[in-house]
Amino acid sequence: MMLGFVNENREAIVRIAVGGLDSPKQMVDAVIDTGFTGFLSLPLSTIRAINLPWSFRDYGTLADGSDVIFDMYLATVIWNGQSKIVDVAASESDPLVGMSLLYGCNVQIDVVEGGTVRIESLS
Question: Alpha-carbon torsion 78, 80, 82, 85, what sign?
Answer without folding.
Answer: negative
